[in-house]
Amino acid sequence: MRVLFVCLGNICRSPTAEGVFRRELEAAGLAHRVEVDSCGIGDWHVGKAPDPRSAAAARRRGVDLSELRARQLAAEDFSRFDYLLAMDHDNLAAIRAQCPDGCGAHIGLFLDFAGHVDRPVPDPYYGGERGFEEVLDLIEAASRGLVEEIALRLEGQRR
Predict the structure, then answer these.
(1) 117: helix, coil or strand?
(2) Does the reported pTM lie above 0.85?
(3) Catalytic residue among 7, 37, 39, 51
């Protein structure tokens, strides 16, 4: 199973989602069965580390983002990943615009897995510290929901 988190520049929301989701997979004993990555729609930050404010907020919750580096969504991601999860509606529209015909991946908003159907993860980039904490709250909730879904899918594959 492979999961890709997508935001605009891959320095705030999607690397945070990658790090938090990895932690939740570890806690569920599924880390060895699920590949996780993140990327951005744009290429402005390719090769750069996550925003220091995102990294600091994640670190306060026990999530290390220091090894992550930004990359841009690529054509091969559509065949490589089972889930392409957007942080907001603009990201989702960009993913869908690039999606080739016949793509079998689940493409949708990440917060759908937290029961917040059609709700975006707000971009904390231009806000204050509280915005980064809110993003973490939302991402933690959605990560737990996604882990539950993937656990059920993986259990179904065993039968």
Answers:
(1) coil
(2) yes
(3) 7
